[in-house]
Structure prediction request, 414 residues.
Amino acid sequence: MFQALKRDKGFYRYLAALTGPIALQNLITFSLGLIDTFMVSKLGNNEMAAVTAANVPVFLLISIVFGVQSGVGILISQYWGKKDLTNISRAIGVAAGLGVALALVVALVLFLWPIAIMDLLSNKHHLSLLGAPYLRLIGFSYVFNMLSSIYVSAQRSVENASFGMKLFGMSTVLNTGLNYLLIFGKCGFPMLGVEGAALATLLSRMAEFAVCLFCALPAFAEMPLVMDTYELFKPEATAELEQKAQDASAGHGVNVYLLTVADIGGQNVREFAKDWYRSNDLGYGEGKSGILFLIALDSRDYVTITYGGGVTAFTDYRIAQIEDKIVPMLSDGSYYKASDTYIEMCADTLDFYADKGAPLDSGNDPAKGWIKWVFVFVIPLAVASIVCGIFYAQMKTANEQTHANAYMPAEGLT
Prediction:
């Protein structure tokens, strides 16, 4: 058993990088109610007891949030292993809809019947009256917390474990500060007491959701043409390639994509590229027209795929030309030059298609024009020259004579 625990240091560093932030995140999450209770205790024992009793039904909301985010996290981890981004988005959407619906129902029940619910948990009616304002508001904070927790779970499942720790750390600091202002009425704010604790929590949860929404908005934007997930290029180089790819694609109805990844997880490189293309909803227009060149750095694989109108614009002959040109550059480690050449050749191909109305192929390749002239003129001329030379070499030489007897035979005329 202990032999199985012997791993290299890199494994344990990676494990600590994943589990450490998650543990701190959970600690921060479950400490929010404790902070409210602690700060309300400064108001008196009755107020502290009322908030403690009110947090009992709130635990039901916490359990719902934890269950939904845990379930969606498992699904997203599986989809992330397959790089199935479409189903990741679908899982987040379903979890958000289901989770918000459940949390909203419970929140509405707590809002409408706070005193009756607290009377079920305590035989001291005056505590129910003190805790009711807290219970009315605190339920709605978990509607926003549901959404932010699902987003945090998704980030964790795609190996960004520190995001949740940072987010909930921020909200805890904000909640503590708002508690001080609203519970005790500091800095010109009204002294709301127990209700102020609930309002502070609600505002901090709304801030959580706002941060998640801000971080998620770029995911809804159009995918870039140069997707350097391996971080092979410097940001300025990626920006240059992106601009060139946009220029190459503009006006042709076919998008030119470049993708770098670490590895393809043992999957067939062409199938991986197709799955990525479809999962990320790449391509121009309804036909999803495009060409994508994939570089898998760790597995040293590459492939070119076309889709929609890209299948017509890029013939097998032209794709072979592009790969023959850029693969030697990749072998030499000239990744930027290879990427730049790929985009440039794609631009030339699309321009040719637009000008000629036909895709560039072996029969109409301008680069092959000199070969046609070789066959039409140069080779026949060379053959003719050789034949003439042979005949010339076989001819007898005739020398001009100035005397008549030079033309007479030696024995004379007969």
